[in-house]
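User: Please predict structures.

Assistant: First:
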Amino acid sequence: MTGQVFLHGYQAWFDMNLLNGIILMGIAASWVITFGKEVPYHNKISNGQDIKQNITLLIVWNWSRVAAWTIVAILQLYYLQQYMT
């Protein structure tokens, strides 16, 4: 995760375009979901608070993260294909 932020931050700094912007937004979305939603649910589960409900919410929010990372991965492959040829 951190490597992607540095890599695409660097690329955006020197070559800002729509594709880099969308990739950065996808990475940011994944970080926001991770630290804004999933970490608090993990903490609640660790503390024994509403375990079943928090596991369900964790799974729901994890699918959002999976979607964000999938979009980022597809766009990164497209980016590599465009700039390697």
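Second:
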Amino acid sequence: MFGVVFRGHPDMKRIPMCELSRISDRLTSVASMGMECGAFTVFLCMMKAREYIGDVIEFTTGARMTASYIRIGGVRADLHPDFRAALEKAVRETRREALDYGLEDLLQ
């Protein structure tokens, strides 16, 4: 249509990055709520988990603050070829941290 050629489906790149940002924001919210309630252990666990997610975002976009990565109609660049492996590592490490801190209920 109108001579526009699409190179891959942009939602397959945009949605995972948006979800990672959303998860990172939720982890920060839970961490601060735990801190307000006096649960320093929850704060430490959630902030570590947030760092793992931040590492994946930075690995993919080149920065932790990604205001310019998502654009109208797509994203600035493709996902890194090792994106899946980095994401799996982040999920694995987050689960391990939660189990180490005895926060199994947060994983359900």
